[in-house]
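User: Predict structure, ligand coenzyme A.
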Amino acid sequence: MRRLKIRRAEPSDFEAIWPIFREIVSAGETYSFAPDTSKEEAFDTWMVKPQVTFVAELNGQIVGTYFLKANQPCLGNHVCNCGYMVSSRARGKGIASAMCEHSQVQARERGFKAMQFNFVVSTNEGALRLWQELGFEIVGTLPKAFRHKDKRYVDAHVMYKWLDT
Ligand SMILES: CC(C)(COP(=O)(O)OP(=O)(O)OC[C@H]1O[C@@H](n2cnc3c(N)ncnc32)[C@H](O)[C@@H]1OP(=O)(O)O)[C@@H](O)C(=O)NCCC(=O)NCCS
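Assistant: Predicted complex:
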């Protein structure tokens, strides 16, 4: 039986996170991070700068990860921001969905009132559909804000969900 466990990431987990990060970022399709981001920069981005980072383990293997942090300082810090990554080998099994639900619980426990995704690339249709299913709305569109790996300029969406009931 398959078992999914989401837990806080330890620095040593980065050895398993790095291949997932590298695969996704080097594709240049979904995140604005430089496709040639180094392992050290990736560690800083994913493990150091966020307030907290989690991993999703399927049968003891790390297959996904997300971070959570305040989206703005001070007067905007009741809104959090998360980034999610799932290994291409483990997609379509509900791992991102479980991580996003988990992140909303974590966000509420940490006192956040809302969650914002700043840059959902419009061609990332699976992610867009998933976030919408989970209650996020497109509140704005940045025309041609993302330079896709094939050099096309494509739109990016800002997505938002108020968490406080
Ligand atoms: C976007 C991303 C995080 C989604 O991860 P995922 O784990 O595959 O997502 P889920 O499995 O939760 O949901 C994806 C689809 O699988 C379906 N699904 C969910 N549980 C399922 C299950 N048990 N069995 C089969 N399919 C399932 C979902 O309904 C969804 O279907 P849809 O595409 O028709 O909406 C992943 O593709 C990824 O890491 N992409 C690259 C980075 C990225 O784009 N990050 C998000 C930036 S905004």
